[in-house]
Every structure is written in C-alpha cells, then in structure tokens.
Specification:
β1 (90-95) and β2 (98-106) form a beta hairpin. It is built from seven helices and two strands. α2 (18-40) packs across α6 and α6 crosses α7 (134-145). Strands 1-2 form a two-stranded antiparallel sheet. It has helices at residues 10-13, 18-40, 47-56, 63-69, 74-86, 108-132, 134-145, and strands at 90-95, 98-106. With 150 residues, the protein is mainly alpha-helical.
Amino acid sequence: MIGVNHLISNAELQNLDLIDLLSERHSLVRSISEKAWNDQSEIYISNSEWYIMARIYKKQPSISYVTKNVEISRQAIHKFIQKLSERGLVEINNVENNKKEKCIQLTPLGEECYEKNEALKAKLENKIAEKIGTEQVSILKGILKLDWKI
C-alpha cells in the first residue's frame, strides 16, 4: 500500500529552508516509491538504478553518454549497469563502427519493470494530490519544470 508517511515532523519542516525542504520531500517520496516497488516485486531495483533506467527507457544511448548525463560517478554507473545486466533488465551491445563504445538499452523485462514502476509512481502522485490538492500538485510540477537559471 502506498502511503504518505513523514520522515520528520511537520513542526520541524516549518524551520527548514528551501534546499532542505526539497531534500526532505525528495527523500520521502523516493523511499515510498522504492518500498512500493520492492513490496510487489522480487527484483530489487535501487533508486540509482531507476534513475539510470529512466535515462535509457525507449533509447539506446552509449554508456559514455549515460555517464555524462547522470549525476552519479562513472564507476558507480558502470557497477549499476552491470547489476542491471545480471538481473536481465538491460543489455549492453557494441556500437556499430566503434569497437570501444558500448550502448545500453532496456530488455523487455526492463521495460516491463520500468512501466510497472511508472504506474506505482502515478498512484503515489494521486495520493499526494488527494492530500494537498490536484491544483497544488500541478502548480508544484510547473514550478519544478521552470528554468531557474541557476
């Protein structure tokens, strides 16, 4: 069951600045999302692995492209990709006309897991909307999508 639990009290949240509020809410929704997946699946997938899977969903980027566009260390990305491959969630292939470069894509199982997780996240978003209002969620998403020019 997806629920909105609190990592810290509402009173403590009132004293946080923007950066810490974003961090607290991010940690909260990520932990709820990860738990929802792991409660319904025998395939454990960490938040970092989901992050990589989101970047390659319906694409075939090179591994070097992923390392440049994901905010995780290159070594860690290679380790996560290897673990995803061992679980049959991604496949690693040679890039045509380039013996050094490898590309990565989700397997059918990886795509199925990714899509099921997207549905779980949609349920969580709906649960949040029930608590704070659909319009507030829409406004929040709009603000987060803005170019903050920082």
